[in-house]
Amino acid sequence: MSDFLIVLLGTTMLYIFAVGRIEAYVKTLSLQGLILFLLVLLDIKEINWLNILFLSFETLVIKAIVIPVFLLTAIRKNEIGREVEPYISQFYSLLIAIGIFVLGFVAAFWSAQVGEFIKPLYFGVSIVLIISSLFLIINRKRIITHILCYMLLENGIFLLSISVANEMPLLVNLGVLLDLFVGIYLFVLFFNKIQEMYDGNHIDVLTELRD
Amino acid sequence: MIASILLIPIIFSLFALLIKNKVYNRIVLIGNAIIYLIIAIMRWLNVVWFVLPAWLLKYFSFDDVGLYFFSIMSIVFLATSVYSVFYFKESNLTAYQEAVFIAELLFFVVAMSGVILSTHIALLWVFIEGTTLTSALLIYFEKKKSSLEAAWKYVYICSIGIAIAFVGIIVLSIGSKGIDSLFFENLYKYAAEKNPFWLKIAFAFLFVGIGTKIGVAPIHAWLPDAHSEAPSPVSALLSGTLLNSALLGIIRINEIFIHAHQEDFINFFLLLTGFLSLMVSSVFILRVKNYKRMLAYSSIENMGIIFIALGLGKAGIYAAMLHILVHSLSKTTFFLTSGNIYYLYKSKKIESVNGLLYSEPKTAWLWIISTITILGVPPSPAFITKFLIIKALWLSNLGWLIIPFFLFIIFITYGMINVATKMSFGSSQLSTNNKIPGYAYIPQFILLLILIIMGIIIPQQLNEFIINAGKFIG
Questions:
Q1: Chain B residues whose beta carbon lies within 8 Å of the beta carbon of residue A197
Q2: Which of A50, B81, B332, B436 is buried most, with the most CB atoms less than 10 Å from its CB?
């Protein structure tokens, strides 16, 4: 079951590579939050109940509902429909995505050989998520897409942390969640300000400061 | 003690937001800085008290190296808080705007204290990200287009960097068989048992992530923008204390790898980034047109020098520790003085500032002496640190690196002295009769006095203090 969910998570990433509408990104983010929640539930025999409660709250409430809704409001308020033409065209982006997936699966196979305390498929897909989101950040132009890809990166890191059989203390988890939350809030605040001050909302408008 | 460091500023700043009174604002800001200094002195005299419950207390500790960084932070914080009063007056802020500024500033200082006090690597990460989020609002405080751009770049690049560092923390816990504690104490204890392969991967992620926050080349893109667009007191804190706290993070993390006998591996990267930072800053300082950006590049240069000193292992520890202190104090005076210049000339362009010596001699002398102290012209203690680094390079059989080290420093010295003379001499076109009050230059004079006395003779107790802080390494 968890293998099926993990593959589904990887597929959502491929979908993001192919999609152009910004709202579809947010819905995919929300779906990823839901999948992560189910993965946490499947791990239930391994972690203590307090952490389970906390992780469920983090994935189901924050990642799947609160942040996507918050981002969707910002997008609708600023009337952003589609992503503009990226630096590397869609076709080549997909080729690169396939390359990243191959790399991820190689990493999964390899980590299974090493025999450390890792869940191989989790590990491979989390690497795919992290590298893809970094690639998307470099390739896309809209500031809102950058914020969404930051969330994707955070999802990848979350998956990596549950692929290792270690858990963080609750205090640290709380801190991480608070940082993520305030971070997204600030991103959206600055994004709205940039929309107000500049006509465009591409990163190309942010080129005043240079030597 | 730890509770008072982390909670008092937060409580008082919330009151400041409610009361909205100018006198109370100033009392909160300067009072908190004095409380910090008193706590540092208490800890110096080994007077310690703890009120936190034991389960929470294990996440924080106040060791010698932490005390050293905390003391530097207290001094810089006091100087900037006194100067901030001048900033409030010249910007004509309302009581509420002042309160917002103070609240953001105090939250920022608390986050930095958290970085210094953390004993758990992931908690350190949480506080470093906290410093990014709290200072981003301060950079955007003046609500101009340029400060918005700087704040966006800063918060975004640093958040991505810190996210990458978190990957490093997770990888660090992969490489340990059955040891699942991420307290520094345990990481040091079991470092030698960890799998070196995973350790090296973890180091790469952590180094890139926290290096972004320190602003060493080639991941320094945000630093000149953020430091030049922030209000002057904030710039001083960013350069004088924020870079230090991130640096302490790197020092604590390096210690894991030293315990795992990976010194050669990490020293190579420290030296490489150190020299790269020197190279980048020397190129840009020669062509820079904005004096606050020049100071930001100088910060990159000094972080590079500290990295080189750390990369020389035991031989460079004393130089690194001393240089951290010297850089913090002189860069603080520099940034606060740049606030005076901006107030007089209303421009950050070097070409708009002329004849400072005739229009405002005190500020001009501050500018010139700060230049001298940061470049390491005797009697500046930076001269001692650079001399020690060259000596350590020679003794580590890396003598050939002395040539690029010298060359870059000569370029930077030429660039900065050039700018200082351009701004200080010449004929003044200043027709305003803006007077700068005493508290806008007395803090800087006191800091420079400390530095110059240190350049002539370092007091015995201070020397022992620096050596004790350095004992943490290795």
A1: 145, 148
A2: B332
